[in-house]
Amino acid sequence: MLTRFILIQTSHAGNVGGTARAMKTMGFDDLVLVAPRWANVLRREETIQRASGANDVLAKARIVDTLEEALDGVDHLCATAMTPRDFGPPTLAPREHFSALVPSATAEAPLPGGVAFLFGSERFGMRNEDVYRCHACLSIPTDPQFGSLNLAAAVQLIAYDWREALGGFALPPSTQAKPPADAQALAGMLTHLEQALVAVDFLDPAAPKKLMPRLNQLFNRAAPSEEEIHILRGVAKAMLQAAAAKR
User: What are the distances in angstroms from CA 219 to CA 29, 92, 181, 225?
Assistant: First the structure.
């Protein structure tokens, strides 16, 4: 589905770069700027720095003079606002609106062909007339005492919630845990460790009590890998060398 992010009269170049970065992390790349403060904003150093590698999003981005020019191909418009308006489309939390929008798609009521998220200027937000043309007004739930979000941060939150509504991304596979060392390797390490503990006077061989059985149980629970056994034997070797050097 076409997903577009539209920034209206953006005044800070860094927010354009931050928006590109936020979009790219969520797999979106359709960015349109409506009458930004800087005509060359897509090439400004601050924009490129804040994009942090999302240069392809900047390269594809368009600059237009009016909002109408930014709406080609989209049929569902979502305004963004910090506070509800007395008139206009319903004000909803992003997840609330997205959960109703995506699962409701049927043959009779399919998903929109294209969705656009509109963000107003940093100082004044969106004009009422721009909000009125939208199907919904999204308001990100924040602390009632301080609801002011940075523009790029707001884009990131909207982009994340929308990507999740569309199915999200799977987490990359984690590194496979190495299998535990066999009982023979564990027993050899414990013998080596016992020698080291005796050498540093931590273990009295005449009265060992249950120290080694307890350590055996500890390492059984830890299930160290072969590599970890080698590390522990290296520690035991260093202890023996240090003890011998003092004699």
Answer: 51, 54, 10, 10
Gap between the Cα atoms of 244 and 199, Å rounded:
8
Say which residues have a Cβ less than 8 Å from residue 41's Cβ, sequence separation at least 6.
Answer: 10, 13, 16, 33, 47, 63
Give the pLDDT confidence score for residue 147 in this predicted structure: 79
- When divided into structural domains, the chain yields a total of 2
> Which residues in the chain land under pLDDT 50?
105-107
Residue with tokens 């904003």: 41
Do 226 and 150 reside in the same domain of the chain? no
Provide the pairing of β-strand 62-64 with 30-34. Answer: parallel
pLDDT at 104: 54
Host domain of residue 204: 183-245
Among 165, 200, 217, which residue terminates a domain?
165
Which residues 6+ apart lie within 8 Å of 154 measured at CB? Answer: 80, 119, 140
Structure tokens at 205: 């061989």
At 107 the pLDDT is: 47
CATH of residue 136's domain is 3.40.1280.10
User: Measured at the alpha carbon of residue 23, what is the angle toward residues 2 and 95, in degrees to the nearest 5?
Assistant: 75
Beta strands in the chain (DSSP E): 2-8, 30-34, 62-64, 76-80, 91-92, 114-119, 136-138
pLDDT of residue 208: 86
Q: Are 30 and 5 in contact (CB under 8 A)?
A: yes
Output the six-digit token pair for 71: 């709406």
